[in-house]
Amino acid sequence: MKRMAKKHVLRPVEHVQITGVLTVDQLVKKMAGSGAFGAGRLSEAVDVFTEMVKDREMTKILGLAGAMVPAGMKQLIVKLIRDEWINVVVTTGGNLVHDLVEAFGGRHYKGTCFADDTKLRADKINRIYDVFLPDSYFVLFEKKIHKIFDDIKKRELSIRELLTEIGKRLKDSNSILKAAADCDVPIFCPALSDSIIGLQLWLYTQEKKLKVDAFRDMHELIEICYAAKRAGGIFLGGGVPKNFILQAMLVTPKGGYDCAIQITMDRAETGGLSGATLEEAISWGKIKARAKRVTVIGDVTLIFPIIVAAVNERLSIVH
Amino acid sequence: MKRMAKKHVLRPVEHVQITGVLTVDQLVKKMAGSGAFGAGRLSEAVDVFTEMVKDREMTKILGLAGAMVPAGMKQLIVKLIRDEWINVVVTTGGNLVHDLVEAFGGRHYKGTCFADDTKLRADKINRIYDVFLPDSYFVLFEKKIHKIFDDIKKRELSIRELLTEIGKRLKDSNSILKAAADCDVPIFCPALSDSIIGLQLWLYTQEKKLKVDAFRDMHELIEICYAAKRAGGIFLGGGVPKNFILQAMLVTPKGGYDCAIQITMDRAETGGLSGATLEEAISWGKIKARAKRVTVIGDVTLIFPIIVAAVNERLSIVH
Amino acid sequence: MKRMAKKHVLRPVEHVQITGVLTVDQLVKKMAGSGAFGAGRLSEAVDVFTEMVKDREMTKILGLAGAMVPAGMKQLIVKLIRDEWINVVVTTGGNLVHDLVEAFGGRHYKGTCFADDTKLRADKINRIYDVFLPDSYFVLFEKKIHKIFDDIKKRELSIRELLTEIGKRLKDSNSILKAAADCDVPIFCPALSDSIIGLQLWLYTQEKKLKVDAFRDMHELIEICYAAKRAGGIFLGGGVPKNFILQAMLVTPKGGYDCAIQITMDRAETGGLSGATLEEAISWGKIKARAKRVTVIGDVTLIFPIIVAAVNERLSIVH
Amino acid sequence: MKRMAKKHVLRPVEHVQITGVLTVDQLVKKMAGSGAFGAGRLSEAVDVFTEMVKDREMTKILGLAGAMVPAGMKQLIVKLIRDEWINVVVTTGGNLVHDLVEAFGGRHYKGTCFADDTKLRADKINRIYDVFLPDSYFVLFEKKIHKIFDDIKKRELSIRELLTEIGKRLKDSNSILKAAADCDVPIFCPALSDSIIGLQLWLYTQEKKLKVDAFRDMHELIEICYAAKRAGGIFLGGGVPKNFILQAMLVTPKGGYDCAIQITMDRAETGGLSGATLEEAISWGKIKARAKRVTVIGDVTLIFPIIVAAVNERLSIVH
């Protein structure tokens, strides 16, 4: 044992003990005591994210894949933006489409994953796992987004600029796009063309002029990375957002992100970037070898609210 | 939309909103508002488990696979036993071995999953993902368990009886086996021979007489199922515990469990029972068609503490 | 049993029997006899893909996520293109970058997933799971791709056109881009900016003019869908390619794809599109309710070569 | 590059190329050329298994979890036994129950995983993912197994002996139990009580005497390990079989298995033994540090037939 203690960093696993009413962070701290398996990684993620949020000089970039908005996670992102927990968002088009559906007056509905999809089709209801979204909201979406397109003065923009312009014209303070516009948080969406926004943009430009340049955004994100004193990435799922965030750092001489948190169900063994370990990113120079980093394997919709609640608690109590 | 509302159960997805300090259940209730994806399933699991715990006439059986004790989850199980949240435990041998390691004075240590296993072997340290356990504790284990075997009067027992006898002789009130013995909660371990306890038992019986019958336990569990007014299963992982709990009900004319909660990373598509859906169990008559049931896909060590904390909070506030 | 036979489609599971030397399709047909679990789905995928390939009037679109080229799957894609098994490719930028790395004279190397990433960084080697790629090939890449950019006459192109222009200028007949250019197979890459090609393009345009429009491609793909007598999708992994292919069909009045094959490790329960079932796509009108469709859960690099070999065998024997 | 070549074992990834009709092993060898990701691991598994089969002095132990018999994999196991590719089987009870269902004249049927389980229950059909099994075969099972129990002379046996006695009394040469009895291959089933065989045994012993000792088997398996010149484990899924095989070696002074192949969908990060890496087993002394070992992540029903076919081909051609 002594020999083990000397050679290995050693602290006994403390068992999670639950009594009375616990706040979220009190529970997370009990998990930290355990330190093992998923519980340990969750508590580490809270530590790292708290440190990131507290570091006012760190540029924090959030990667957003999956279907966070239909899942009811929109206001977590809005909070992160409004409270300056993050400074940049990189997302799939899907999350923005669903954000706009709601900003335009639509709603997502709690359905079931056991639905008969043929019947749903007949009823003009689109299913996202156990969430339902009626076709009618896409009709509304088309009308409203074209109005916004009309209203934009500058007729040549980057994707980021377009998204800011859209955000400025929204009234729903719970919208991600609106919050980002309010707070000067740039939203990047490299694959915007792969979304209903992109589709409507293309339809719009069949008759009117509105040029959107998909390549200028990269420049802007790279400059943000260049300018960052320190930089951290929070990856909710993988996909294009994860790659875009990592790639932007790659071109700078910084040597990689200083902090990284990854929450995903994707695993490394198929070789895709979505499931790649944060360690692999070190070999590329995307993440520093000494970076604080933690991966939590699990469903983002279940894990991220816990992390945000725990960090919020730590910050609430400190002040 | 009206048509959809009529034909489908419909309630809008409410977004999880986090402000100030939240208790665990306050957060879970916000997830319930969302109702979608993993967050929705987690909140449902809390609802179902609360209902189960409150139902004093329901026999609640806990299935325990995986490595819950090295993960620091031992006292959650102890709490469930001591607070009468569950009435029966079915477990792998592994969880009991690790429970005894600690009851006998050993500890598990927080290590790392990136360790060099060849070096660990040289240092006589066993790795369980990111937890370390020195060989020396198994030496201690051998000495202590043989002493207990010596001390048992009845020389022919069922596995369940053996485990009760062991539990009675422990002093560590944080031990699962001790708590179960204290509270008359039977612990079944159908595959005890597949564990270091089984191994030591066999070594012991090379010189001394101690007959353990592995088949009588089934009888006892079936009788518990027969006698149950209502019955519920909580499946932490799959494996033998899940099957044993479901199978015991199969032989009764009850028509299946009334409630079921499953937390697992296993999926259905390989066809194994561990990942089988609770719906599949309906076809067998193991779970009632109208049973309240919910599966949460995820790491038990991360998810179960949240569920227990939320249920505990609901019960603490009620009383 | 008779009652079961009447109400349910019923055929006994035949056990896979292996004797002597089997061709790939002989094995797949034995799996078809079983019909169960993953083996059954694999055999169905071979049936559906064979039917698709044989249907000369079906437009077949391949979605390519993950890291197929580093995995050694490049020539499978080239074969699909050259043999007219597919008519359109939608891919992540990553696969094209790695295709170009090799077309420009670089290689990927068999490494190990247990490597020390900090040391790899010091040695200027990038790791992709268990594949190594030296930095030096990216230097080569930069030089060669800028030369190609210089050589392109048309200075305003869609992403698809740019990729065709690049393909035309390659000499490596084993390149995906070259094969596609040779065979008039359009390659779409909606998130090209999220790749080293996009990065180099941006660097290039800092000094020279080369305008690439990311939104025109969608138009072209939608027109392909419109024009298709029948259409089929083959989804290797999820991500942007899967969504882009499905979305393009959504806008047409076709009612969805007639055939769909999906091979992926992603699952439905987190709600993201990558893991969404093909059934879910029916609710959106992206896939027809009566479409032949099959999902194989597994590693594409392991499963897709089997499918291609089996289909090839069926076609070789027919002719 | 030279520096990389010196420090790292380096061979270029060769792309899988498919032309004409390929035998299974020809395809596997092409995957070996690639060497990357899942394709590489599959080809390694074929190499290691071939070597194991050829080594007549190696004791080869097969661990069998999941639902291999309903999946149509029974005759693969029978082949392994009859051709002396393996010398010992450790299995869950489930696989033996399904083996006996068929040996007694029952069948499994190809159904669908989208079935309505409530209706299936009404029709007395049990579902195993996409396989159906009517209740009636369990009635037949009861009758036949009790007859066999009656017929066994020795009234006190180990589980292994009981299974041999059952196997001897079967006529179906395609039965695993029959093949094992024919070939003197011991079958261990540590959790037999967790199966319908165990259930029927218990029912039987309510009226008649038949004592089965669950702990003697361990002794026998340990002795097999002791006696083995070299030893290899093939783990199809995890669960009790994996643990039992590894644990038996633990008690010997051998230092672990010399070869190990693992095929599973379970992953390491939840800390359970089912998903534990083979590397972790080195720290315990269950597998030698220098052991040839390979893990293939995937569905056993899809992957194992390929491995068996490829090994069979190598052996067929050699002779």
Short overview:
Helices cover 49% and strands 17% of the residues of chain A. Chain A has helices at 2-7, 24-34, 37-54, 74-82, 93-103, 117-122, 136-151, 159-168, 176-182, 196-207, 216-227, 239-250, 278-284, 300-318; strands spanning 58-64, 88-91, 109-110, 125-128, 131-134, 156-158, 187-188, 211-213, 230-236, 257-264, 287-297.
Give a quick set of tags describing it:
alpha/beta; Deoxyhypusine Synthase; 11 strands; 17% strand; globular
Structural commentary:
4 copies of one chain form a homotetramer. The longest helix of chain A is centred in the C-terminal third of the chain and has 19 residues, at 300-318. Chain A has helices at residues 2-7, 24-34, 37-54, 74-82, 93-103, 117-122, 136-151, 159-168, 176-182, 196-207, 216-227, 239-250, 278-284, 300-318; strands at residues 58-64, 88-91, 109-110, 125-128, 131-134, 156-158, 187-188, 211-213, 230-236, 257-264, 287-297. Chain A is built from 14 helices and 11 strands. In chain A, the strands form 3 sheets. Chain A has a 6-stranded parallel sheet with strand order 7-2-1-9-10-11, with helices on both faces. In chain A, strands 3-5-4 form a 3-stranded antiparallel sheet. Chain A is of the alpha/beta class and 319 residues long. Chain A has a single domain (11-318), classed as Deoxyhypusine synthase (Deoxyhypusine Synthase). The model of chain A has no long low-confidence stretch (mean pLDDT 95). The first copy, chain A, is globular. Chain A binds chain D through residues 36-38, 267, 269-271, 297, and chain D through 36-38, 267, 269-271, 297.
